[in-house]
Amino acid sequence: MKKASIRDVAREVGVSITTVSRALNGYNDVSASTKEKIREVVERLNYAPNDNARSLGGKATKVLALLVSGLQQREDSGFVFGMISGLYCVAEKNDYEFILLTTNGAKQKKMNYLQLCRLKNIEGVIISGIKMDDPYYTELAKSEIPCVVVDAEVEGENVCSLSINNAEAAYKSVELLIQNGHRKIAMVNGSSSAEVSKERYKGYVKAIEENGLELDLSYIKSCDFEEKIAYEKTIELLNTHPEITAFFCASDVMAIGVITAINSIGKEVPKDISVVGFDDIPAAKFVNGGLTTICQEPFVMGKKGGEALIAMIEENKKTSHINIPYTLVERKTVKSIR
Amino acid sequence: MKKASIRDVAREVGVSITTVSRALNGYNDVSASTKEKIREVVERLNYAPNDNARSLGGKATKVLALLVSGLQQREDSGFVFGMISGLYCVAEKNDYEFILLTTNGAKQKKMNYLQLCRLKNIEGVIISGIKMDDPYYTELAKSEIPCVVVDAEVEGENVCSLSINNAEAAYKSVELLIQNGHRKIAMVNGSSSAEVSKERYKGYVKAIEENGLELDLSYIKSCDFEEKIAYEKTIELLNTHPEITAFFCASDVMAIGVITAINSIGKEVPKDISVVGFDDIPAAKFVNGGLTTICQEPFVMGKKGGEALIAMIEENKKTSHINIPYTLVERKTVKSIR
DNA sequence: CTGAAAGCGCTTACAG
DNA sequence: CTGAAAGCGCTTACAG
Fold first, then answer.
1. What does the pLDDT read at residue B107?
2. Is A330 within a domain?
3. Is A336 part of any domain?
4. Is B125 in the same domain as B94?
5. Is the CB of A221 under 7 A from strand C?
6. Among residues A89, A12, A40, A55, which one has the least CA distance to residue A305?
7. Which residues neighbour A247 within 8 Å (Cβ) at sequence distance 6 or greater?
8. Which pTM value belongs to this model?
9. B252 is in which domain, residue-wise?
10. Is residue A217 part of a domain?
């Protein structure tokens, strides 16, 4: 049982393929009766046009891509999933195809960014989790393909960045701690090469300084977003600086490491030490009775990113940055020590 | 700056498009020198073949699809993400393209299952989360397109089911409870229309009966996999049957509802009542200090499913069922009452 | 309202 | 080792 082609339905109906094509594409210069006949044969033959041929023929299905460096086996933050879901949603609504791409996969095929997009006829792409030392990174700016980059800064004509206001969110987190009487506040940061880490650091510093506290650089640890490293550095910090009463963490995953460390030396959260995280991953609700954290919504990021892409593609509307809302979710890991 | 076509590179190099095509496809009947020239021009022009044209021309890039009914905005179970990741991984390794599809989206376009696959040139598909009353469901069996269905039974020539041994896993969970001295064990089940619910129910019943306990149907509640319903039914159950000392839940999400309900009437887990879940979602580690549950690995499901698909496509090797391993993860929500 | 023909960008016998 | 030509399954002027 071979696939039926447009030829098969034309023959069966007794018209030309031109007519079939036009009927299927909703043109109204086809008589109602032949339209009906065609519809009937299409159904009987289970005919569906070949999308590749349509594209070549001129009726291109546009495609939007999400490009990530690689896919984890599981991703407890739900970040990539949310982005997929959000982008897929706007793609579907606007009759674009959605495609998921990996820079790793492309590298195997020895293709650069532009080639990758060309190959798949990609009209717009959201890039997430790309490192600043990734070769794809620099190629972006030169590209004529509309692109939104999540949580990173890239200069370029057709590039748009997308993120929450990380500095502000960090500022508010630390401010919450300060308002609760904390004055010795450590920061567990991500990797220094990540844009978000820099921003969150800025917010931390600003909150400390504006509130007249003393900025102590030894209170700040880079933990590469790893739970385990956060755990270790926290143990260190708690040994050398037993006066610390609160931690601001640049991710929930690291916050989990911090809490584990605190517990391991016999202290409790928030009784002895307060902790605030960042991201609001699905597990956050359950961590230590509920982790106080900054809620980011990956779905919204994917959605807004996709909408910006379509605006760039269809109306040539360029935006340099999309700001995504966030919220500070207060749960159970911050205690007032006033 | 228009896309370069094979014609452009042929002209630039001064050879025919035939030669360019063959060089790019790795045939070795092209001289090393022209091969090199072509490589150089390709790079300079940033040329990448148009995948649509390649497919039409005869060099089809095969595609594997994951078909789900719809995408949630966020999915705390990580189930779909794991399947995506697993399927993507084997697709990439075997030079297939991966594509994510939604039955909702297809329905909008008024296409049936076969048409959907035909449109996108899909060679094999993993179907997950499809309801038994979904029209796509019945079309599957007739299809000549290799297909693996997750957590459901479908009869058909080219259909293969994939799941853990749900009955056995349920049996072991309940057995664990019994070994810990529990004799009044409730079951919070999913929806009665789901295959997995039936299997897990079987396992529950078997464990109860084989251990000489009395099967009490009023101990069993259908909660449609919803946390909220599980919460409500648990409250009910605890009122009418205060003798219950343990809950076996057909999902972690429902287990969360159960635990919340238990706490809300002033009891504690596992001190007063033991609970075991199902799935091992990312949050499970943190729920009530660690939820005892059955660990399923969605990534492995996607991977094994994809491998089966490829075996069907390339070697016509048919399998009727793929069994995925699982583990019972004992954490902190079961207490011995012996 | 309908059809013959050209063309989309490739690949692959076939001939040299 | 290389090229002219046919063909993949569509769409779209163009002509009637």
1. 66
2. no
3. no
4. yes
5. no
6. A89
7. A185, A186, A187, A188, A234, A255, A258, A273, A274, A275, A276
8. 0.93
9. 166-295
10. yes
Q: Is the CB of B49 under 7 A from strand C?
A: yes
- When pLDDT is cut at 50, 70 and 90, the band that residue B8 belongs to is very high
Residue with the larger pLDDT of the pair A46 and B262: B262
Q: How is residue A112 annotated by DSSP?
A: -
B283 touches chain A (CB under 8 A): yes
Please report how many Cα atoms fall inside a 13 Å half-sphere around the Cα of residue B26, on the Cβ side.
2
Phi, psi of A115 (to 5 degrees): -60, -40
Q: Is A304:A324 a contact under the CB 8 Å cutoff?
A: yes
Q: What residues of B are in contact with residue A80 (Cβ under 8 Å)?
A: 81
Contact yes or no for B292/B275 (Cβ under 8 A): yes
Note whether B262 and B234 are within 8 A (CB): yes
Same domain, B22 and B70: no
User: Is there a single domain that holds both residue B27 and residue B80?
Assistant: no
For residue B87, give the H/E element and its range.
helix B79-93
CATH of the domain at B178: 3.40.50.2300
Is there a contact between A266 and A205 (Cβ–Cβ < 8 Å)? no
Percent of chain B with pLDDT over 70: 99
Same domain, A66 and A142: yes
Segment A25-46, tens digit of pLDDT: 989 888 888 999 999 999 998 8
Average pLDDT, chain B: 92
Residue among B50, B256, B282 minimizing CB distance to A121 = B50
In chain B, what's the furthest Cα-to-Cα distance?
Answer: 87
In a domain, B333, yes or no: no
**What pLDDT, in 10s, does the model give residues A210-245?**
999 999 999 999 999 999 999 999 999 999 999 999
CATH number assigned to the domain comprising residue A19? 1.10.260.40
Domain count, chain A: 3
Tell the burial category of B258 from Cβ atoms under 10 Å away from its Cβ (0-12, 13-18, 19+): buried
- pLDDT of A133 higher than 90: no
Structure tokens belonging to residue A135:
């070769």
pLDDT at A1: 59
Q: Do A286 and B287 touch (CB under 8 A)?
A: yes
Distances (CA, A) of A201 to A27, A192, A210, A222: 58, 10, 14, 10
Separation in Å, CA B156 to CA A96, B3, B137, B138, B320 = 33, 45, 11, 10, 9
Report, as an integer, the average pLDDT of B109-120: 83
Q: Which residues contact B247 (CB under 8 A, 6 or more apart)?
A: B185, B186, B187, B188, B234, B255, B258, B273, B274, B275, B276
Are residues B130 and B216 part of one domain?
no
Q: What is the pLDDT of residues B278-304, one digit of tens each?
A: 999 999 999 999 999 999 999 999 999
Give Cα separations from A40 to A46, A51, A199, B253 (angstroms): 10, 21, 60, 46
Specify the pLDDT at position B142: 77
Distances (CA, A) of A291 to A197, A256, B137, B154: 20, 9, 41, 43
CA–CA separation, B25 vs B20, rounded Å? 9
Question: Quick check: A88 and B82 CB within 8 A?
Answer: no
**Do both B173 and B287 map to the same domain?**
yes
Distance B144 CA to D5 C1' (A): 35
Statement to judge: residues A174 and A268 lie in one domain: yes
Q: What is the pLDDT of residues A253-302, one digit of tens each?
A: 999 999 999 999 999 999 999 999 999 999 999 999 999 999 999 999 99
If residue A250 lies in a helix (H) or strand (E), which one and from where to where?
none
Of A80, A115, A288, the CB nearest to B46: A115
Are both A258 and A305 inside the same structural domain? no
**DSSP state, residue B292:** B
